[in-house]
Structure formats: structure tokens, C-alpha cells
Amino acid sequence: MKFYKLIIFVFLLLSCQNNKSSNKQKNKESIQHQVIKVKTAIARKNTFNKQIQANGIVKAAQKTDLHFKNTGYLEKIAVKNGQYVKKGKFIAQLENELLHNNLKKAEIELAKARQKYEELLLSYNLNDSNVKPEVRQKLFVQSGLAEAENHLQEARIQYRNSILTAPFSGIVANVTTDTGKLVTPADTIATLINPHTYQVVFKLMENEIGFIKKGLKVQTKSISGNLPAQTAVINDINPMVDAGGTVTIKARLLNNNQTLVEGMHTYVTVNIPVSEMILIPKKALVVRNDKDVAFTLHKGNTAKWHYVEVFGENTTHYAISQGLKEGDTLIISNNMNLAHDSSVETEKE
Known about the structure:
With 349 residues, the protein is α+β, with helices and mostly antiparallel strands. Helix content is 25%, strand content 39%.
């Protein structure tokens, strides 16, 4: 009796499993035959702007800290932070009354020595136009004119070193306002920046350098986001990979409107044109089993599954290196719900 009950139990168990398998198959077939409405686009070949993102810093190619060459007490500052000055503009001055007096004294000594030199010429019945070079040199030393000229030159240098002027036109920054303070040649009085030489300095990974070349345009925008983007041109590529595996790039700003300033942090976008790439809208790509997949429309009503390799991307498109061909009809909506050979119906975008 127990044996018959066991046989009946096994029979019922197998029947249930068969029913479950049958239901799963029916559900699968139902899904495959369910018509899903989709939108489409055409895969086309075109030039692809490969985008590389980086962080950069604005730096002036022409920038210098201004120092006095002499030690002395700071007497006057003639500029303010943010002020634009032209080349040769007076910046600051040390107390230099003594140096000024030394300069005047040297000028007087030179005049006396020149008068003595002329007296010596007369005593030899000579004039300065026809005197022989060796005689002139002898009289220069004898009259003290050579020494007086040397003293005057030294006095002029000392006096000139007590005055700071702009070595080039630019914007003044980091101005020291402590007049009366003793300063040395090691102290920075101000920093001068030429805004017409602004450039963006950024780093790229070594595996990205193959796409970079001088003359390539980049877009840069302040991290704050409230300033307009600007265009720069790559003008320097350091031929060395640093310890972090990056290469330093410099790009000169074009027509800087003074919204970007020295030391500002920016986002940098490098657009690299790559010709003859298959471009697809970003909506056409889905991920299945950690792989990139695109669905195409086959015979007007069937979805076909394709593994693809992505070469790069920008804000709107992917560039595909393998898996699709030009002219393929891409499914760009409801593709998350599709399987291979799903039935679809197209609708207008």
C-alpha cells in the first residue's frame, strides 16, 4: 500500500514540475511575442569629437615678483592691487636722499675731471678730435676723468636700484603697503602679471597624450560656473611623464576678457576630432551582463541584439568601433525591456 502511495506522490510531483516548465515557456513565448513600441534612429559615419576632461589652473606666462636690489627703508608705494600699469611705470621707492646726493657729487666730480682733461690737452697743444688713442687714455687717467666716469656710473646704478619700475605692462598684485619698513632684496614688494599671456595649465594621463598635439583647441570654464567658457590653444606639451603618470599641458587663452584671473581653477574640455566613426545617440546604448549592447531593427518589426565596443563619447553620442555598421536602424527607446528577436512596432520620435 505504501508503495502505491509513493508512486502516486512521484507522479503528482512530476506533473507539477512539467506544468511549471510549461508555464515558463509560455511566459517566455508571450514576452517574445509581446509587441513593444520603440523609436529609432540611423547609425551614421561622421567626424567624432572625442572629449577628454581635466582640471586646470590659470597662469600667466609673463609674471614676476618685484624686488629692490638694495636694502633700505620703504618710502613710497605708488600702485594698488588690481591696477594696470604700463612698462616703465613708477612702482615704489626706498629712502634715497643720500644716494641722490652721491649722484650729484659724482656729477660735479666728473665735471671737474673733464675740465682738468681739457687743460691737459691744451698744455700738450692737442685737441680731442686728433689726439692719439694711447695719449687720450694716458690723459684720461692722469686727469681723473676715467675714475670720475666710473664713480658717476656707480652712483647712477645705486640711485636707480632704489626705485622700482614696471619691467613690462601688466596688472599689479600682492602689493606691500608697509611704508617705513626695512626691506631687503629678498622681500617682494609687488607681483606684476601680464593678463595678455594667460594660459591654462592642466595634466592628462599618459595614455591620452597620443591624441594631443600643439594647435589643438580646448574649452575652459571656471569651476564656479558663473563665468562664460573660453577657448584656448595648446602651445606646450611637456615631454615627460611625472610620478603620477601624467603629462603637463599648457594652452594659451584666446581673447581673454579678463574674467579669468591668475590662479583660478577651471574645467578643461579637449575636443579631439576623429574622422569616419560610427556615431549613435546615447539613448541607443544599454548595458547587459556588464557589456555594452545596442538593438537594431530587423525587417521592420524585430529587435536584434549586438555587442558593441565604444571608442569614446561626448555629451550626446557614442562613437562605436565594432559591432555596428553605417545605416543600421537603431532602437533608442524602451530598449531596456527588449530581448533578442523581440517583436517591436516603431513610432515617431
